[in-house]
Structure formats: C-alpha cells, structure tokens
Design goal:
Elements: H1 2-11, E1 35-39, E2 43-50, E3 54-55, H2 63-71, E4 74-77, H3 87-96, H4 114-124, H5 128-133, H6 136-150, E5 153-154, H7 159-169, E6 174-176, H8 180-188, H9 192-202, H10 207-222, H11 225-236, H12 240-261, E7 266-273, H13 283-289, E8 294-296
Length: 298
C-alpha cells in the first residue's frame, strides 16, 4: 500500500503539497505519453494521462499533442492548484490537517525511524511543534516534499501546471473535476495504520524511491498503458478499500461526467493522472463499456 500512496501523490493528482524548488535536471529525450479521443458527430473530448511532478526541462509535448491542445476550447483537470498563490489549497489543508490530542509525531513512527524523522523535519524548515499538531497523513505529505525535491521534481513543471499556463495565455477556460478539499479527504479518511505507513515512507531516503518513480516515468513516457496498469494493480492488491476510494469510485464518477459532457458540442481536453486511464477499470474501459468510441491518438 505504501508504494501506491507515493505513486498516487505523483500520478493520481494528489501532489499539490509536495512541490518545491529542486535541483536542475538533465534534459531527457522527448516523451510520447498516451492520448485518447472520445468523439461523436459534434463533440470530441481528448483524454490525457499525466504525471503531476516532473523533472525540470522534461520534454513531453509532441506536435500531435499540441494539435489537440490548439483545437480544444477548454481544459479540465482533477483539481486546480495555483503553485504561485496556493491560498485555496492551504485553506483546505488548514481546515483538515490539524487536530487536538494527537500523540507527538515521534511516537507515530517506529523507534528505529525517529532519527530519520528528526532529520527530515529539519530539512522541511517547518517547526517541529507544527508536526506534533498535524494528522499523520498531512505530516507525511509535508515530508514527502523533501524526497521529491531531492529527485529533481517540481510541481510547476508538471503536466497540469504547464497546460493551465497554455490555456490561460490563450484565454480558454479551465475547469476541475474535484475540489482541493475532496482530494485531501481521500487521505484524511485513511486508517491510522495507512497514514503511519505513509509517514514512515516519506522519510525513507533509499534508492528504492528513485527506482519506483523512474519506472513509472519510463512507462508514462513511452505511453505504455499496460505497464502503468500493472504497477497500480500490484500496488493496490493488498488494499481493496484504497482501490475503491482512490481509483474505482473516482473513475466511475469521471466517466459519467464525460458521458454527460458528450451531449454538448465542441472540443475539450481532460488531463488526469495516468493511473486513471490504464487497466480494465479505467475511465477508458468504462467509456468503451458504455458504447462510446474511444480512439488512441498517440
């Protein structure tokens, strides 16, 4: 489950709290992530699977993708986060992430992890007293920012942030499928055991974290939807409750939203975490099951 929680933050649209100013990253080859189109006589909806945190200067836009962007009248993302002015997100966090009567943060990790926790708190720049008042999942989110920064990942170079900039500059509207509060609530309702696993994982500086993200990034870059689906299925196999809350329920809700939007003419682009568009329970699969024509464009 811990691997999935980390993967969810980077690829399911729950990464807004883990942004920062990372080190420079070497420019990689141009990626070709998967892109689909759902269409009928007068409506086209492009579906693009994203990763919300990317190395700086990562080249993922292609002529075919840019053509879809140019032809779209609106962008719809999972949730809207303004990294330069995250007031809405911070307000949602303040209302949900703190509680009275919590045990000290050091007591929420195993004894052998406490030294690593102390070091991670120092790196975060957040006063330790604040962590003692945070719910465990929120503390884990804050400390995961250390890992993502050390890996050279940055929220404002992620796919959604770049796309929002493009659509905004062209005067096109941007919508969201979920609010900041809804997204945070997915983690706020996790059992404490799962929250503590996330917290311990957030202070793990092993090479495994880099390896896991690199594998996910490679699959996304190649448009290897089967590999993405295998990763999420494997990570969720031990937690059907988490799969229901973070994947199945959201996929069903979004697919119905798309079906309703198909009744309106025009062209739009929907950009959501890549895990939602991969596998037998994906948004893509649900749309096909309901009889919609879904074409792989890239």
């Amino acid at each position: 489950m811990l691997k999935f929680l980390k993967r969810a933050i980077a690829a399911l649209g729950l990464s807004a709290l883990a942004v920062g100013a990372p080190a420079q990253a070497k420019a990689p080859p141009v990626a070709h992530p998967a892109l689909w189109a759902v269409s009928d006589a007068d409506t086209t909806i492009y579906l693009f699977g994203t990763i919300h945190l990317l190395p700086e200067h990562y080249q993922w836009r292609t002529p075919k993708f840019d053509q879809a962007v140019e032809g779209s009248q609106q962008l719809v993302v999972e949730t809207i986060v303004d990294e330069k002015n995250p007031t809405k997100l911070l307000s949602a966090l303040a209302g949900m992430a703190f509680a009275k009567g919590l045990p000290p943060i050091s007591e929420r990790v195993s004894p052998d992890k406490r030294a690593a926790l102390d070091e991670a708190i120092k790196k975060s720049g957040i006063p330790r007293a604040n962590f003692d008042q945070m719910k465990t999942w929120a503390a884990g989110f804050m400390l995961l920012g250390n890992q993502f920064r050390s890996m050279g990942l940055k929220g404002d170079t992620g796919v959604e942030s770049v796309l929002r900039g493009t659509f905004t500059s062209e005067g096109k509207p941007i919508g969201e499928l979920e609010s900041n509060v809804q997204q945070l609530a997915f983690f706020d309702t996790l059992p404490e055991k799962g929250q503590r696993a996330l917290l311990e994982g957030s202070i793990d500086q092993s090479q495994a974290t880099n390896y896991e993200f690199t594998g996910m990034l490679t699959a996304w870059s190649k448009g290897d939807v089967k590999a993405i689906a295998r990763s999420f299925d494997r990570d969720l196999s031990s937690s059907p409750e988490l799969k229901q809350a973070l994947m199945l329920q959201r996929n069903a809700t979004w697919s119905k939203w798309i079906e309703q939007r198909m009744a309106q003419p025009g062209r739009i682009m929907i950009a959501v975490g890549a895990g939602h568009l991969a596998g037998q329970d994906s948004v893509i699969a649900l749309l096909k099951k309901d009889g919609y024509r879904v074409e792989r464009v890239q």
